[in-house]
Amino acid sequence: MLFKIGSLLMTPAARYGLLALAILFPFLASNEYQVYVMASAFVWAIAVYGLNIITGFCGQLNLAHGGFFAIGAYTLGLLTADHGWSFWPAFLAALLMTAALGFLVGVVSLRLKEHYFAIFTLCVGFIIYLLIDKWEELTHGPIGVRDIAAPYGFGLVDFTETTPFYYLVLAFLVLAIWFMGRLSRSLLGRTFIAIRNGDELAESLGINLMRNKVLAFVLSTTYAGLAGALYAGMVRFIGPEEANITHTFDMITYLLVGGIGTITGPLLGTVGIVWITQSLQFLEEYRMIIFGPLLVVLVIFFPRGITGQFLSWMHHKAQAMQPRHKARASKVTAPQEARNNA
């Protein structure tokens, strides 16, 4: 029901309106830094959409999601900076690498359930961080990777500049949201939701749990790798902190605030929190004193996130309107029936 009502949020008029606003944003921004911040928010939103597949749709809390983001970033960074690859072949390699590693980790970890799965993936995320930080021969260790190649442009388009790269990220975000919408309405998406509602129920319906969970995990990690590769091409320098577990918890926060298991939630939560934290930058280390309680208030009063709470309100409103429509219909049909009987 929530997905059916949620489609109201993404009517053609609403979609085109949001897309037009995103396209015009560089012209409305007061400086280039704001364009950069929005591009960064879009990159993280892509990663959060990946987390939404495995956690929001399938009900599996993957705490290694930030690690796969870092794998995508490092794959592109190392191939371009150390081995002379151009951006797009390295970009494709980053997607394949995160998908392959996602498959291997998923096959092992998804045999576990609930908090055991979460703890296992937390360990996987920490192992990824340690490998990136300590394996200096491959990853350069704490020094990080510099001089990462940016996407090569065409004609007058130069992706080393902020605004063209913003539009490139926007294009990938639109593609990610489009795929998420198609997935939510497909048989595969409904299969994921059935698994989220209960393994026993899903098995009783003839669903292959392991195969579908692994597929959801691979799709999720591919989204993370896509975001990580775009991030590396945008900042042109990455370090071990990209694999820090705090990034995973940041993405979980974005998802919870926006609305877990919804289509617009990851975008609203990510963009909203990124801009709130940016607006509190002037407070420096004290900004978390304000942001922390604000986040607690949001979780208390909007437990389903902003989008989820709105969808629930729409659902209750639709249910409340049904008796009124029935009463009006009965008032109209009663006189008509009386005339027919006469």
UniProtKB/TrEMBL annotation:
The chain crosses the membrane at residues 12-29, 35-54, 61-81, 87-108, 115-132, 164-181, 214-239, 251-276, 288-306. InterPro entries: ABC_transp_permease, LivM-like. Its main location: membrane. GO terms for molecular function: branched-chain amino acid transmembrane transporter activity. It comes from the Bacteria. GO terms for cellular component: plasma membrane. Keywords: Cell membrane, Membrane, Transmembrane, Transmembrane helix. It holds the Pfam family BPD_transp_2. It is found in: Cell inner membrane. It is a multi-pass membrane protein. This is Branched-chain amino acid ABC transporter permease. It comes from Marinobacter profundi.
